[in-house]
Design goal:
By secondary structure, the protein is mainly alpha-helical. Helices cover about 55% and strands about 5% of the residues. One 2-acetamido-2-deoxy-beta-D-glucopyranose binds next to α1 and α8. The site of one 2-acetamido-2-deoxy-beta-D-glucopyranose has 6 residues, from α1 and α8. GO terms for molecular function: metal ion binding; nucleic acid binding; RNA endonuclease activity; single-stranded DNA endodeoxyribonuclease activity.
């Protein structure tokens, strides 16, 4: 299976078509920028044990040479395709305005009320699909490659604080403002602008340098004693509930706080939010590795997930 096949028939018109489509019908939310998703997946892949590592390699198409991060943005690329329209609500959660909590029963549904159709439900769904991987290839109901890519992507999204945002402003998408001198919106500031400003101000626009800094901070830096608690997960349902709750809490305390439409966000906002974004990327990566190790590994440890 080639990557091109996987991405669908590529033609020079696709980008224009997709962009037009996204502007017309799409909710702007795309999840962490490609940088955020790539870093989440690289962090995770570096933490895989031998069984999970092998399973991931087996599931990836050959032409990415075993690099999971090369396809971690795939779910954003296909979300408006007819065949994958059902995945669109799986990238985020709308919570009641100004409530600042996440309730699974209350909030995890799509706009028509279909249960579990939100990023928290999607993570449970694709985690339990991947649990069938070890049963062998005979009777697989699901496409395990897609399950891996969706899980890896949605673990990034659930850690992007504004992906668990208020309903009326679509997670900050409708709050138009300026990021320094450029037009942006509050959602996009957290998806991408903060990461790009960090890259250009501190890391010579080199994502590898930023990634090393993040990894250094959880291996023996400021977060090293927190990693065990980040990874803690008894069962996948309570874990996704906790992670979404963390995001809406951060969205309220740091995302929305003091921000009004039409404002200009600059140094003060950037300086106080950058480390939060980096920590969320680290947590997403560490926890994705935890799930993959637990799903593919031979160990008895790990969590119980409904199959
Ligand atoms: C699984 O999904 C990928 C990506 O959509 C596709 O290229 C591949 O053919 C599918 N595999 C099977 C066995 O259907
Ligand atoms: C789970 O995945 C299947 C496809 O594999 C899909 O039909 C279903 O809607 C998904 N549900 C959620 C909550 O992700
Ligand atoms: C890593 O931690 C240091 C503090 O020890 C901090 O100044 C730096 O911004 C952190 N870097 C990242 C990418 O998290």
């Amino acid at each position: 299976m080639g990557k091109l096949e996987m991405l669908g028939r590529w033609s020079p018109f696709w980008p224009v078509f997709l962009l037009g489509f996204a502007l017309l019908i799409g909710r702007g939310a795309q999840g962490w920028s490609k940088e955020g998703h790539i870093m989440t997946c690289r962090i995770a892949q570096d933490l895989l044990g031998s069984e999970a590592s092998e399973a991931v390699r087996n599931l990836l198409p050959h032409d990415v040479n075993g690099d999971l991060s090369a396809l971690c943005t795939w779910p954003d690329q296909i979300r408006h395709w007819y065949k994958y329209r059902w995945t669109s609500p799986l990238h985020f959660i709308d919570t009641p305005d100004n409530d600042c909590t996440f309730g699974y029963q209350r909030d995890c549904h799509d706009q028509h009320g279909a249960e579990d159709m939100c990023v928290a439900g999607a993570i449970q769904n694709f985690t339990s699909q991947l649990l069938h991987y070890r049963e062998g290839s005979a009777d697989r109901r699901y496409n395990m490659t897609e399950a891996l890519l969706f899980l890896s992507h949605f673990m990034g999204d659930i850690h992007q604080p504004m992906h668990v945002g208020f309903t009326s402003d679509e997670g900050g998408n409708t709050i138009n403002l300026r990021w320094f001198r450029r037009k942006s919106n509050l959602h996009h500031v957290w998806d991408r602008d903060i990461i790009l400003s960090a890259l250009s101000d501190y890391y010579e626009k080199d994502m590898d340098l930023l990634l090393e800094a993040i990894q250094g901070n959880f291996t023996d830096g400021i977060w090293s004693s927190d990693v065990t608690s980040w990874e803690h997960c008894d069962d996948i349902h309570s874990c996704v509930t906790k992670w979404a709750g963390e995001s809406i809490n951060i969205a309220c305390k740091w995302g929305y706080k003091g921000v009004e439409a039409g404002t200009t966000l600059s140094d003060d906002y950037f300086d106080s939010r950058m480390s939060i974004v980096m920590k969320r990327i680290a947590q997403g990566g560490v926890r994705l590795a935890m799930i993959l190790n637990s799903v593919f590994g031979d160990t008895d440890e790990g969590f119980a997930a409904a199959t």
